[in-house]
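Troubleshooting log. The previous structure file for this entry was overwritten by mistake, so regenerating from the original sequence record. Sequence copied from the archived sheet and checked twice against the printout by T.R.
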Amino acid sequence: MAALVLGFGTLASAQPALAAPTKAAAPRPAAEAGQQPKPVTTIAVVDVQFLLEKCSAMQSVKQQDSVQTQKFQAELSQQEQLLRQAEKELASQRTVLGQEAFDAKRKDFEQQVAEMQRRMQERRRQLDNAFSAASAQLRDSMVRVVGEVARESGFTLVIPRSNIIYMADDALDITNTVLLRLNATLPQITVNIPN
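Regenerated output below.
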């Protein structure tokens, strides 16, 4: 029993020595260690889709797009009507012309159709490029204005509202401020349509 008591006593007396925490050096602040303190990130939110739908510049682009689409459709209809007329004339000449002469006229008609399709495709491509350039100009202006508003308000990060699942404070939403400034700085965009 004495051995057991001595054994426990030995363990008990040894335990405080083992369990005594070693005094580690306290962590030094980052500034003392020669490191820069980490910047604080302040986040703002902007509704990009809302801006693109509601800004006056996009409204002007949509109006121009509508006008150009109507012109394109009218031109396309006119070309199709001319080709239908040419096709009727060709069909009426089938019995009058010899096979060789008819084949030559049919080949000319097919070339006219191919040329019209090529012109219409090229025109559609020009319109698409012009409106893409206008949209890019709007997006560039929007990004610039978002940056200005964020810097002035002290935000270091701006994320689109569409990427947010939850936001507790609507005060962090700068969409309306950006919309007002975007409308003031870029009230409209003139789409450069080639002739």
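Confidence is low (pLDDT under 50) at residues 1-22. Archived copy saved in two places this time.
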